[in-house]
Amino acid sequence: MITEARERGDVTAPDTREAARAVVAQREGQVMSAKLCDDTRRLTPLWDNCRALLGAAGPA
């Protein structure tokens, strides 16, 4: 999906495999943090962080 998004110009990640790994690691880390702290607000920056990892624009 990231490769297709890059081909469309939606993301700028140069290495799509590494970008995918980074997104998964980001998600897993933030979910674990939210569970440990029993605070779902820790998930708030998740999508912004994932977009930044992919070099994607924010929501319109």
Low-confidence parts, pLDDT < 50 over ≥5 residues?
none
Q: Which geometry do the CA atoms define? A: elongated
Helix and strand sequence: HHH
C-alpha termini separation: 20 Å
Sheet having the most strands: none
Structural class call reads mainly alpha
Count every beta strand, where a strand is a DSSP E run of 2 or more residues: 0
Number of helices: 3
Q: Calculate Rg over CA atoms.
A: 13 Å
Average pLDDT value?
Answer: 93
Q: In percent, how helical is the residue content?
A: 55-70%
Strand content: under 5%
Structural commentary:
- This protein has 60 residues and is mostly helical.
- It has three helices and no strands.
- It has helices at residues 2-8, 16-37, 46-54.
- Helix 2 packs antiparallel against helix 3.
- It is elongated, with a radius of gyration of 13 Å.
- The two termini are 20 Å apart.
